[in-house]
């Protein structure tokens, strides 16, 4: 009722900006999937060690998170438009460097250029930027733009698989680098103008005061959310980074593996707006708990699945479960902390999600190289997810406790 009495900053332009941001995200994240599809091809050039290309993918995520903090501050000073343009150019440079082969050119190209300056200049700054265009349906807007990474994963891997088969993985990287630059730069230059200056204030969350969040010191809650984000994204990344190779180990073609990745990420894209509506209705923390529980169940199912129908079903279920988690973390930051702190809190949370995304894919590669199959890695993923549920469930319980105390008072 309090929020409904405040004039909304949302307009048709807000959704136009969000839609363009979705397109930018889709192209920006596409390049990172080439290494996933070509994992076995790249590994074959370095003695079959899958941990080497998996490290390249891990560095992309890790450095993208660190770059988000750096470039978030830059965007706060010079504007998001310029960090996005610079990020697109950096992705092209990173893909070009990666074509010189593994390990070091691949690691430098993916970590420093695609991750740190590329996705770092695009992902976190755009989350902060779009959140400033919305007040009433912020969860739905964040869910929409965060779908870009999964739309990229659904759309590009089958095309990359065909391109790699015809041209090779190096040529595919070069072609895609030019394509994404040609798409992103004009959109950023023409659409990403300054957001509204005075966003409408939101009601305080239960237990929130200038010195308390959920009744605890603000940075204690923030640290707990950061740790939880690492744990859930460790699980989240394992099927995404290794599903193509996992299907190949079961005797299926790379085309089938790429199709499974598209099913997983396509389901995530389709369902993400549903999660956004849920987040708008029930809040960020509750959405994380539900999505995390669903993800843990689907990850457990991967341990017992080896046939085509089972892989399709579990891939779709996994995509449906995890798709709402990351934007719910961003929404939680906006619900619990002042808008003036968004430029550093949101990139910091994204850094920890990137640590989980990168670390999970890397850990799965290490465990595969040691054991020769994926069962131990997926089991570690389930355990990590359960620890995430324990942390976020505690915070949600604390929120309900604070709400009851307010009602009784």
Overview of this structure, please?
The protein is mostly helical. The protein has one domain (9-408): MFS general substrate transporter like domains (Growth Hormone, Chain: A, Up-down Bundle), CATH 1.20.1250. It is 81% helix and 0% strand. It is built from 15 helices and no strands. It has helices at 12-30, 32-37, 39-44, 51-78, 80-98, 104-131, 138-167, 169-191, 218-249, 254-282, 284-302, 308-322, 325-336, 342-371, 375-408. The model has no long low-confidence stretch (mean pLDDT 87).
Task: Give me a quick take on this structure.
The radius of gyration is 20 Å and the shape is globular. The chain has a single domain (9-408), classed as Up-down Bundle (Growth Hormone, Chain: A).
């Amino acid at each position: 009722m309090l929020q409904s009495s405040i004039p909304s900053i949302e307009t048709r332009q807000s959704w136009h900006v969000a839609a363009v941001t979705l397109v930018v995200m889709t192209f920006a994240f596409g390049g990172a999937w080439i290494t996933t599809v070509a994992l076995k091809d790249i590994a074959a050039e370095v003695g079959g060690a899958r941990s080497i290309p998996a490290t390249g993918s891990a560095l992309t995520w890790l450095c993208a998170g660190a770059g988000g903090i750096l470039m978030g501050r830059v965007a706060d000073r010079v504007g998001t438009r310029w960090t996005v343009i610079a990020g697109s150019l950096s992705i092209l440079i990173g893909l070009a460097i990666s074509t010189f082969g593994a390990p070091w050119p691949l690691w430098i190209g993916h970590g420093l250029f695609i991750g740190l300056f590329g996705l770092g200049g695009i992902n976190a700054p755009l989350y902060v930027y779009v959140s400033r265009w919305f007040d009433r349906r912020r969860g739905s807007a964040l869910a929409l733009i965060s779908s870009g990474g999964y739309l990229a994963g659904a759309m590009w891997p089958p095309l990359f698989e065909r391109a790699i088969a015809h041209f090779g993985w190096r040529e595919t990287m070069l072609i895609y680098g030019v394509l994404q630059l040609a798409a992103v730069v004009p959109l950023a230059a023409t659409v990403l103008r300054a957001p509204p200056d005075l966003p409408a204030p939101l009601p305080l969350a239960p237990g929130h005061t200038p010195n308390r969040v959920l009744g605890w010191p603000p940075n204690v809650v923030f640290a707990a959310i950061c740790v939880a984000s690492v744990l859930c994204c460790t699980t989240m990344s394992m099927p995404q980074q290794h599903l193509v190779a996992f299907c190949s180990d079961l005797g299926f073609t790379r085309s089938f593996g790429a199709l499974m990745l598209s099913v997983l990420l396509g389901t995530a894209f389709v369902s993400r707006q549903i999660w956004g509506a849920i987040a708008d209705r029930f809040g960020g923390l509750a959405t994380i708990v539900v999505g995390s529980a669903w993800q843990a169940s689907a990850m457990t199912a991967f341990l017992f699945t080896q046939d085509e129908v089972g892989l399709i079903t579990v891939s779709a279920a996994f995509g449906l479960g995890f798709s709402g988690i990351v934007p719910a973390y961003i929404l939680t930051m906006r619900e619990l902390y002042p808008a003036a702190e968004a430029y550093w809190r949101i990139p910091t949370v994204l850094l920890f999600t990137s640590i989980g995304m990168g670390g999970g894919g890397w850990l799965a590669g290490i465990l595969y190289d040691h054991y020769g199959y994926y069962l131990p890695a997926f089991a570690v993923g389930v355990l990590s997810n359960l620890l995430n549920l324990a942390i976020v469930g505690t915070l949600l319980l604390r929120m309900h406790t604070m709400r009851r105390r307010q009602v009784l008072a």
